[in-house]
Structure formats: C-alpha cells, structure tokens
Fold:
Amino acid sequence: MTTIIPYGRQDINQADIDAVVEVLRSDFLTQGPVVPEFEKAVAAYCHANHAVAVNSATSALHIACLALGVGKGDLVWTSPITFVASANCALYCGAEVDFVDIDPQTYNLSVDRLKEKLFHADKAEKLPKVVIPVHLCGQPCDMEGIYALRQQYGFKIIEDASHAIGGRYKDEPVGNCHYSDITVFSFHPVKIITTGEGGMALTNDHELAVQMRLLRSHGITTDTALRHSRPEHELWNYQQIDLGFNYRMTDIQAALGLSQMQRLDEFVAKRHNIAIRYDQLFSDYPVLTPWQHSDSYSSYHLYVIRLKFDKINQTQRQVYDALRASEILVNLHYIPVYRQPYYEQMGFVAGYSLEAEKYYSEAISIPIYPGLKDIDLNHISNILIKSLVK
Structure:
C-alpha cells in the first residue's frame, strides 16, 4: 500500500516511455506525423469523422465555441457541477453564461430543468446559442433528451466529455457526435488516458474541423484552397486568415496518448472493478454510492460518494479532513461554478441551483485509478467508515 493515495493517478508503462523516446530521437518534437496518427486513432475508436488535438480540453472548449460562432451577445448554458472551464469557454468568446441545474441521480445536467429553462427563455427571446452538457465522472448525460430539445429550440451542442473517453451511451462510444456538434476530451494526467497535458475536439462536420484546426494554430493555414490569392511572383507558403491561438499538441504528447490508447478499454474495465468493490464495501454504511443509468457505461473518471447526514454525526468538512489527515487525498468535484468569487461578481448567488447546492454539500470524491490494489481499497474504506462515526 502506498503511503499517500491521491484521488487520481496516471498509469505509465514501458511501452508509453518507449513511444515518447522514439519521438525524442526523431526529427519532429512538436508538429510531426504522430499528432495526426493520434487524432485518427481517437476518431476511429469513437466512430467520429474528425478529431482535432490541442494542448488542453480548455483550449478545445474555447475553439469549439468559436467554431460554432459564439460571440458577444450570445448565451451559453452548462451544468453548475463541473470544472470552471466548461463555463469559462463562453466568457473567452465574449458571450454570457448561465447554468442548468443537475439531475439528482446522475449529477449531470437535468433534461427536465433544461426543458423548463428553455420554455421560459423562448418566451423572453433569450435562448442559448450553445448548450454544454458535461459527462460528470464519466457517466454520459441524457444526450437523446438534450438532442430532442435542440431540435425544438435550435441551439448547438458541445459535449464536455473531459471525463468520459472510453465511456459508452446507448452502446455507442462517447465522442461519436451523434447527438452533438462537437465533443471534447481531456488527457490531463488524472483522466482516463493522458498526454501529460492535452485535449481533443471531435466532430462529424468537415467545416467545423477545418475551422478548429485553423484556430488552434494562430489562424494560419498552408492549404492552398483556403489561402487568399496573391501575385504569382510573391512567395506565400502560409497565410494567417483568422485570429487564432497557439493551442497545438506536440508529437511528444501525442506519442504518449497514442500508446495509452492501446490500454484504454483495460483502464476503464479496471475502474469499473474498483467501483464495484467500493459499492460492496459501502453497502451497509451511511453513504450514497454512484447511481448508473442503464443507457450509460461510465468511464469512471471519478467515484463520488454522498454523505447521509441524517445517519452520521460528522460534517462534510470533518470527513474530508479525516481522510486527508490519513494521507488519502480525497477531493471535491465540484463547488458549483456560480459560487466561485469571479462568478459571484456577475450576480450569481448561493442557492441558484438547488440540486447542485445539495450535491455540493454532501459530495466527496474518493480515489479511483487503475493502480489501486485491494489493500488500498480496504484501507480507504476503513478510514472513511471510521471518519463517519467519530
């Protein structure tokens, strides 16, 4: 058993190291042949037409919004229970952001609350341009329900699947964009697979893919079909045709990601086994374990328990502190985005989303990653159980 148990940890083997070393010894460290290989591998796995690799999921969300035309005067809606990047991406574009409360069982954006909010927004002529459902913990949202509302109200959809590569929805891989315009993945070290840092945007729309590739690289293109005409005697081997960003992934990162893709299904299966074991260990104790919808197969990026305060005499903070004092580095995913000081300055207040607030007051993320052993799981459960009854 390790001395310190984090809530998440990457799994790097010799094949991963060899793949990175091969790139380090090659002619290309940054923009070479491995990035497109990685893109093709992820697109093929997810059954999507196009994949655009970038340096983070935050960057992917940003260029996804821009490619869909999000700008000043537009509205973007997302879940309050997510990392701040799911909302910040709209602000980067000059748009406004708002939040749709969560489902009490899955903790994902609630289709019922979305339906209600859209009804009132339609009457007020303030419909969102984009809705960003977040597949929290790796469990897919009710994308069929969200897509049906998109058909009625005309908004675009970006799936924030930062937690969910390797997951499935209705027995199809997350990332196929069947119910969305663009899907975004994260490859941060605590995610399902890693590139060190990195992200990817997937789409079935050729024009969106072209635009996102342009935006990730300063708005520069070498494609003769996109370049503007110039006098024949002038040499133009590239042109900046839009205002883009330096959001590119390197070949070094892509090599690691491409190698990790070989073990993606293995990683997810191990996470499921850990989740099943946790479910068993906590079955007789006052914690609520994650409920899974029959339409979904979670990647189990996170395992979130909720404390049953009517049956314990400890606060959330006391349980959290007791676990961390025992070097079990639990976390909280997430404080509602609108409760962050930056968002409170916009006028959001505590209580804006009732289910999100209830979740926030009860939730703790406990460790889940492929390297955890049975002895670790037993230790975590023993410390947690003791912390509930002090």
